[in-house]
Write a sequence for this structure.
């Protein structure tokens, strides 16, 4: 298996002292007593851990894509740590002695960092932790979310909302819709792919957004060429292409969850929605939610040891509002961040939306039963769904 070969073949080509320029692969990730950042040194990725208040303040001001002049030492990782970070192509640890000059990087890095900085200024108009949640919903930046917020989103099955995916891409394209519909097919395709690529870069090439971006690009290409656009086929082609390009994606938990949820939404979701017609307008969202949960059951149980029972209701209550924040929040944030005097007014709807989503997560986490009762509850859900599907009236019968 190619991914296994790539995994076992990860090792640094060079260790020891290094003085020179490094490129930041991602934004610094803050932890309670340290900050982690991945840096590319002579074509290889090393993780840097900064400890100490002064150094952390300096490191946390860096942004992905920037170049930093540093001095330090490259070291090998222990086996356990190497196993945990291999999917990110990290081959070792860089012990930072000092850092001085900073370069803004290439045009893509500069542009994406300017947009992210504008969104961050807009988020400052919201009280915390609403601002952190807003950034997570709009651009997948969950670095500043407090631990208790992360825990309640996981316990309620809503953590996927802060992992940018197909829903975010769809809303970005929807926002560009008035411009795109006025274009001829080929220019429309070029602009569509460009917008998708820009948003993927803006959200730091996370596994879930890579999958969503490639699927959106394939769908746009199929529309241009008049080919069939079955979601399952597009998903299969996207996953195959991504894993061939980067075999280590096959070891990313985020990639598993993204692919599984999408597969469930594309296959089981519509099938269930058709058979749950008795629920009226809730049939489609209920079917889609159940399909997504079925798609992630295996990685959720294997990795996290649980599949939140309240996730079905929590998603029905939170996803529509989170979608509004995603759709409204990006253009509103860009204006609010550029014209700070308008920020309190423009960001008020986003504040209401984020507060609602966080409240649903908090209530869901509080109501989530502990095992084995959660599994008993899932058993009841499965039995009810089977009964509804089996007992539903056949077409032409009364």
């Amino acid at each position: 298996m190619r991914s296994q070969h790539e995994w076992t073949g990860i090792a640094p080509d060079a260790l020891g002292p290094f003085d020179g320029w490094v490129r930041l692969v991602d934004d610094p990730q803050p932890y309670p007593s340290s900050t982690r950042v991945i840096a590319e040194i002579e074509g290889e990725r090393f993780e840097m851990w900064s400890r100490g208040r002064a150094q952390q303040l300096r490191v946390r001001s860096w942004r992905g894509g920037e170049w930093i002049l540093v001095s330090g030492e490259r070291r090998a990782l222990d086996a356990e740590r190497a196993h945990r970070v291999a999917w990110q192509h990290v081959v070792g640890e860089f012990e930072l002695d000092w850092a001085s000059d900073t370069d803004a990087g290439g045009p893509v890095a500069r542009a994406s960092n300017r947009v992210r900085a504008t969104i961050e200024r807009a988020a400052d108009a919201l009280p915390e932790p609403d601002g952190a949640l807003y950034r997570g919903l709009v651009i997948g930046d969950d670095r500043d979310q407090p631990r208790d917020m992360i825990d309640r989103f996981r316990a309620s099955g809503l953590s996927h909302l802060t992992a940018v995916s197909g829903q975010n891409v769809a809303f970005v394209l929807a926002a560009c819709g008035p411009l795109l519909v006025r274009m001829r097919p080929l220019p429309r395709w070029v602009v569509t792919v460009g917008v998708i690529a820009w948003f993927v870069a803006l959200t730091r090439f996370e596994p879930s957004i890579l999958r969503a971006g490639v699927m959106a690009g394939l769908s746009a290409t199929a529309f241009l060429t008049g080919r069939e656009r079955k979601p399952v086929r597009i998903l299969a082609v996207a996953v195959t292409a991504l894993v061939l390009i980067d075999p280590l994606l096959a070891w990313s938990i985020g990639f598993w969850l993204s692919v599984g949820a999408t597969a469930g939404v594309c296959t089981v979701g519509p099938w269930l929605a058709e058979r749950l017609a008795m629920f009226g307008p809730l049939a489609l969202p209920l079917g889609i939610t159940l399909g997504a949960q079925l798609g992630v059951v295996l990685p959720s149980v294997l990795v996290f040891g649980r599949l939140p029972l309240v996730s079905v209701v929590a998603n029905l209550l939170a996803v529509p509002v989170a979608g509004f924040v995603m759709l409204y929040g990006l253009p509103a944030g860009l204006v609010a961040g550029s014209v700070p005097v308008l920020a309190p007014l423009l960001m008020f709807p986003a504040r209401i939306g984020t507060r609602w989503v966080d409240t649903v997560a908090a209530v869901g986490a509080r109501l989530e039963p502990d095992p084995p009762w959660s599994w008993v509850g899932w058993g009841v859900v499965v039995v009810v769904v089977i009964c509804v599907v089996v007992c539903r009236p056949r077409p032409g019968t009364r």
In short: The first strand starts at residue 16 and ends at 24. The mean pLDDT is 89.
